[in-house]
Design a protein that fits this description.
By secondary structure, the protein is an all-alpha fold. The chain has one domain. The protein has ten helices and no strands. The radius of gyration is 16 Å and the shape is globular.
Length: 244
């Protein structure tokens, strides 16, 4: 598969994920893993794309007034150091694919609205609970190379801690800080390769797709059908990864 086709796929993933406040790392990882890229290439690339796209998503949703600092920081303060640690963990390739498959399945459930629409909002979780959840999500995020938004947002919606768009804004910020922690950890422990022209094209494609997706998600109509298409694709990828 040529580099422009890969860039187009990454742009589509970025658009669809950013429309719900996600950076898209699980989608990028699925695309690259299924195309045969090694985990030591996939993780830093996905985190880099995640960093850019989640920033675009956060800017759009925060500008629209959906960000809640008091909901974000208790999860983030525990997740960031654990994401740093998790990025230093080297998983067996098969285990890596299985955990990724589970994360993709959670993302599918989120895209299909199985965790609720976030129509009603309850009080935020107790501080100790937010810290525990943040720590666990940060560790998993670092190990797999994702920002953790696909794991946090279902919890925010399931327990009524946020509305759908508040979940998107908080998740985007959560993804950004965890992706940054994971990238810095990888840079210190393994070093990061200088980006090749192909990777720079991928980043540009993801930024364009993510910016458009975040704008649509924050300002325009719901992308329900597009999310369902993405959900089906990710479900197939999840099955392939789990049973490979």
């Amino acid at each position: 598969m040529n580099e422009l086709t890969i860039a187009l796929l990454l742009a589509i993933v970025a658009f669809l994920y950013a429309s719900v406040g996600h950076g898209g790392a699980s989608g990028y990882i699925a695309v690259m893993t299924l195309l045969g890229f090694a985990p030591d290439v996939v993780r830093p690339t996905a985190l880099t794309l995640n960093l850019f796209v989640s920033a675009m998503a956060f800017a759009q949703f925060a500008r629209a007034g959906h960000f809640r600092w008091n909901l974000f920081w208790p999860f983030a303060i525990a997740s960031v150091p654990l994401a740093w640690i998790g990025a230093r963990v080297h998983l067996d390739t098969l285990l890596y694919k299985r955990i990724l498959a589970i994360c993709l399945a959670i993302a599918v459930a989120r895209l299909f609205g199985f965790f609720g629409g976030g129509g009603e909002r309850r009080d935020p979780p107790a501080m100790w609970l937010a810290l525990v959840i943040g720590a666990v999500l940060g560790l998993v995020s670092g190990m797999i190379g994702i920002g953790g938004g696909i794991l946090l947002s279902p919890l925010l919606l399931l327990f009524g801690w946020s509305t759908a768009k508040e979940s998107a804004a908080v998740s985007a910020a959560f993804i950004f800080v965890n992706s940054a922690a994971g990238l810095v950890s990888l840079a210190f422990s393994e070093g990061l390769e200088v980006h090749t022209p192909d990777q720079l094209v991928w980043i540009a494609a993801a930024v364009v797709g993510g910016t458009l997706g975040a704008y649509v998600g924050a300002q325009r109509l719901s992308q329900l059908r597009l999310r369902h298409v993405l959900g089906i694709v990710l479900l197939l990828a999840s099955f392939k990864l789990f049973f490979a």
